[in-house]
Amino acid sequence: xxxxxxxxxxxxxxxxxxxxxxxxxxxxxxxxxxxxxxxxxxxxxxxxxxxxxxxxxxxxxxxxxxxxxxxxxxxxxxxxxxxxxxxxxxxxxxxxxxxxxxxxxxxxxxxxxxxxxxxxxxxxxxxxxxxxxxxxxxxxxxxx
Length: 144
What we know:
Pfam family, one: DUF7344
Shape: globular
Domain DUF7344: 20-119
Number of domains: 1
Protein name: DUF7344 domain-containing protein
Strand content: 5-15%
Radius of gyration: 15 Å
Strand order of the largest sheet: 1-3-2
Order of helices and strands: HHHEHHEEH
Distance between the termini: 42 Å
Organism: Halorussus gelatinilyticus
Number of strands: 3
Structural class: mainly alpha
Region (Disordered): 35-80
């Protein structure tokens, strides 16, 4: 059996390698969490995020996403982990030129570079891995 055969699935999920590749960067993980409506986000109906066929997420802009990532990333008691040291401008540039095109190529977001609009598409495999990564990141180092 080849590696490609091991990666094949019966549904339209992305490959395991692609899932781990897109989730390897903290800014992509946080962007996906915000776009999908992370647990604890009171502005979204989180019952829909478990639906693998959900494709109607509200679009946002790269600018708004960067602002949310840099302002909201500093733990304000809402359960999100801390991200510091990055300006909204530098995050916006990285999102527009690196992270969102990679997420778009993987089929996880619909991203229009010209308009700066981005909409969450999602994938059940990525969402499971994203949830696991979020719980590990927020837990901090193991004590003991």
